[in-house]
Amino acid sequence: MADPNRVNPEEDVTQEDVLGEQGIADPDAEWLDIVSRSPASRLAQPIGFSPSQASTVSESSFVSPGGIGDGGDVVDGEAGHANTSGLPVKSDLSLLQMAFAMGRLDSSDEEFDAAAELLLQTLAAQIPSAEIGLYLYVNDGELPMPRHVHQREGHRYRRPPESLVRQVRAPGASALLARNVLGDRTLATENTRGEIDVESIVLVPLHVPTPPNNHAADGMQEGTVAGRTASQFPEQTAEQMQAGRMDTANGFVHVITTARDPSLSERDLAVIVTACEIFCEACRSLSQRQELQLTLHQSRETIRRLRSQLAGRVKLLGRSDKIQQVQYQIAQVARSGASVLLRGESGTGKELVASAIHYASPRADSPMVCLNCAALSKDLLESELFGHEKGAFTGATDQKKGKFEAASGGTLMLDEIGEMNLDLQAKLLRVLEGHPFERVGGHEAIRVDVRVVAATHRDLQAMVRAGTFRQDLFYRLNVIEIVVPPLRERGRDITLLAEHFVSTFVQTMGRGPMKLTQGAMKKLLAYPWPGNVRELRNVIERAVVMAPLELRGTHEITADEIMLTRAVVNETAVDEAENPQRASAQPASGRRMEVSPSMSLAKLEREHIQNVLKSTGGNKSQTASILGIERSTLDRKLKRYAAEDAKTRS
Ligand SMILES: Nc1ncnc2c1ncn2[C@@H]1O[C@H](COP(=O)(O)OP(=O)(O)OP(=O)(O)O)[C@@H](O)[C@H]1O
C-alpha cells in the first residue's frame, strides 16, 4: 500500500521532498504536485488539454509529476472541464487570446511588464475569486516584493511565506496546489486582522529571461519594488532557458483564494500553469527580439562610426591646379543629386573622387557602393546590379539584393561603365529615369533613391559614335563631368602623395620614421606614372617594406630603393642629386644618350630637355622641376627650339 507521506510513490519522492524540512504543518492539507516541466518540453504541446491525456484525480491523492501533455494533465471532472469533443473550451480560448496578445507585443523595454499584466488579467478572468501576485528575483536573496499584483475590490493580496516559496524555487520544482490550508502559517500569511484565511494556494515557478530593463517601477501596482536594475537579476539568457540548462526558477506566480471563496481546483492549476508557460515563452521571444534589436542597433552604430572614419580618410590630396579644380567641382556637385561622369586613366583616383562626392553630400549617412562593370559577365553584372530571386538561374540558391538596393538612399559608383553591354545600358537608363526595376527572375517592382556616379577611362563619345554606347544614357550620366588628371600632369603633387604614402605605410606597418631623399624625389618626378596614383602607392609601399629592419634614426629612402617598373627614368637628375660629384650626361628617357665629343653644350642641353619633356608626357611644370629650372625658362628655351626648327625648315 502506498505510503500516504509520499507524493509520488513510483519516484520515491516524499511529501517532505516537495515541501522541504519544515513540510506541511497542517496534516489535512491536500497537495497536488501536478507539473514537473522540463524546459525542452515547453510549448511543444498544445495549449489545451487533450481528453486522451487527461486523468481525473481523486480527492486526497497525489498525482505523479508530469508536464502538460506528458500524460500528467489533470482535469477536474466536476468542474466540467473534460472536453470529449476535442474543441477548445472557454479557458483554452482565453489562453489563446492571451497568447496572441503577447505575440503581438513588440520588443520595447516595457513589454515584459505588459506581458505580465496580460497574464494576471487572464488569470483574474479565469479565476474571478483569486488574488494573484507575480514575483521576479533580482538576486538569489530574500523574497522580493511582487512585481505585479491583482486583487479584487475590497480584498487584499498577501505574499506567501518564505518556506513555501523555497519549494517552487528548488531546482526542477513543479507547480503546486494546496487546499484546506486555513490557519496554516507555513503556507499562508496573515491578513490585516491577524487571521490566516487563505484556503487554497497555487504556486507556479517561472523561468523567464532577465527582464530587459527594469521599468517595473513605472506604473506598477501596490506592492511592487522600484529601482531594480537589470543587472541585478540572475544571469539567465533566453538561450539557456531554451537549452533547458537553467532549472532554478527566477520567479513565480502565486494565486490564493480565501475561505469565503471557492477553493482552487486542479483545473485552475492547469490553466495557471499553461498561462505561465505561455507567458514565459512570450518573455523568451521578447528577450530574443530585444537582443536582436540591440545587436542591430550596435551594428548600425558601428557602421555609422566606420562611415564617419571613412569620410575622414577620403582625402583627395594635391595642390596642383588640376587637382584643385577637381576639388572645387566635388564641392559643387556634392550638394546636388545630379549624375556625375568621372573620366580619367586607371588609378588616377576616380573612385576616391566618387567617395569624396558621396561623403560631402547629404547622402553621407547612407551607403556608398561601388561596382566594377568590367569585372563581370553580362548576366552576372545584371544580377549584381538588380539582384536576383531564388532559383532565377543555376546557382541562385537564395534571393539576393543587388547593388541598387544596397545603395538605397546613398551613392552607387559604376566603374568602367563603358564595358556595360547595350541591353543592360537600356535597363540602367530606365532606372536612372526613375522607373522601378525587378530582380532577375522576380516580378516585384522595386524603386530606389540612388545617386549614380559613373566612371570610365574610355572615350564614351567615341563609343556613342561607334554605336557601342547609348547616346541617351551618355547624356543621362554626363550631367556633370569631372576629368581626373593623370598623375604625370600634377607636378609636385607626386612628391606630396609620395610623402603621404610613406607616412601612411610607416604607420600601418609599424616601422620607424622614414623619408625620401632628394634623389628619390627626383626619380619619382621623372617617371611618367602610367599606373598613376595607384602605381605610386605600390612603389612606395614596396620601398617601405624593403627598408632595412634595423634602423637607427630616420631611414632615408634613396632613389635606388625606389623600384619602378618602367625603365624610362631620368637617371641623370637622380644621379646628380644622390652623387653630385658624379655628373652624367644621360637623357631623361633613360636611353643612354650618345654624346659625341664634338657635340655642343647647347645641343646637349636641347636633347636632354626634350628627353625629359618626353618622359613626363609633355608636362612642362614637371619637366622644369626635374631640370631644376624655372618654368618660364623652360618655356623660353622651348620657344627658341621651335623657332630654330621653323627656320631650318624654311
Ligand atoms: N589624390 C589622391 N590622394 C590620395 N590618394 C589617392 C589620390 N588619388 C588616388 N589615390 C589612391 O590611389 C589608389 C587608386 O585610386 P582609385 O581606385 O580611386 O583610382 P581609379 O581611377 O578609380 O582606378 P580604376 O580606374 O583602375 O578603378 C587608391 O588607393 C586611392 O586611395
Automatic annotation (TrEMBL):
<keyword id="KW-0805">Transcription regulation</keyword>
<dbReference type="InterPro" id="IPR027417">
    <property type="entry name" value="P-loop_NTPase"/>
</dbReference>
<feature type="compositionally biased region" description="Acidic residues">
    <location>
        <begin position="10"/>
        <end position="19"/>
    </location>
</feature>
<dbReference type="InterPro" id="IPR002078">
    <property type="entry name" value="Sigma_54_int"/>
</dbReference>
<feature type="region of interest" description="Disordered">
    <location>
        <begin position="1"/>
        <end position="26"/>
    </location>
</feature>
<dbReference type="InterPro" id="IPR058031">
    <property type="entry name" value="AAA_lid_NorR"/>
</dbReference>
<dbReference type="InterPro" id="IPR025662">
    <property type="entry name" value="Sigma_54_int_dom_ATP-bd_1"/>
</dbReference>
<keyword id="KW-0238">DNA-binding</keyword>
<keyword id="KW-0067">ATP-binding</keyword>
<feature type="region of interest" description="Disordered">
    <location>
        <begin position="573"/>
        <end position="600"/>
    </location>
</feature>
<keyword id="KW-0804">Transcription</keyword>
<dbReference type="InterPro" id="IPR002197">
    <property type="entry name" value="HTH_Fis"/>
</dbReference>
<dbReference type="GO" id="GO:0043565">
    <property type="term" value="F:sequence-specific DNA binding"/>
</dbReference>
<dbReference type="Pfam" id="PF25601">
    <property type="entry name" value="AAA_lid_14"/>
</dbReference>
<keyword id="KW-0547">Nucleotide-binding</keyword>
<feature type="region of interest" description="Disordered">
    <location>
        <begin position="48"/>
        <end position="86"/>
    </location>
</feature>
<dbReference type="InterPro" id="IPR009057">
    <property type="entry name" value="Homeodomain-like_sf"/>
</dbReference>
<feature type="compositionally biased region" description="Polar residues">
    <location>
        <begin position="50"/>
        <end position="63"/>
    </location>
</feature>
<dbReference type="Pfam" id="PF02954">
    <property type="entry name" value="HTH_8"/>
</dbReference>
<dbReference type="GO" id="GO:0006355">
    <property type="term" value="P:regulation of DNA-templated transcription"/>
</dbReference>
<feature type="domain" description="Sigma-54 factor interaction">
    <location>
        <begin position="316"/>
        <end position="545"/>
    </location>
</feature>
<dbReference type="InterPro" id="IPR025943">
    <property type="entry name" value="Sigma_54_int_dom_ATP-bd_2"/>
</dbReference>
<dbReference type="InterPro" id="IPR025944">
    <property type="entry name" value="Sigma_54_int_dom_CS"/>
</dbReference>
<dbReference type="GO" id="GO:0005524">
    <property type="term" value="F:ATP binding"/>
</dbReference>
<dbReference type="InterPro" id="IPR003593">
    <property type="entry name" value="AAA+_ATPase"/>
</dbReference>
<dbReference type="Pfam" id="PF00158">
    <property type="entry name" value="Sigma54_activat"/>
</dbReference>
<protein>
    <submittedName>
        <fullName>Two component, sigma54 specific, Fis family transcriptional regulator</fullName>
    </submittedName>
</protein>
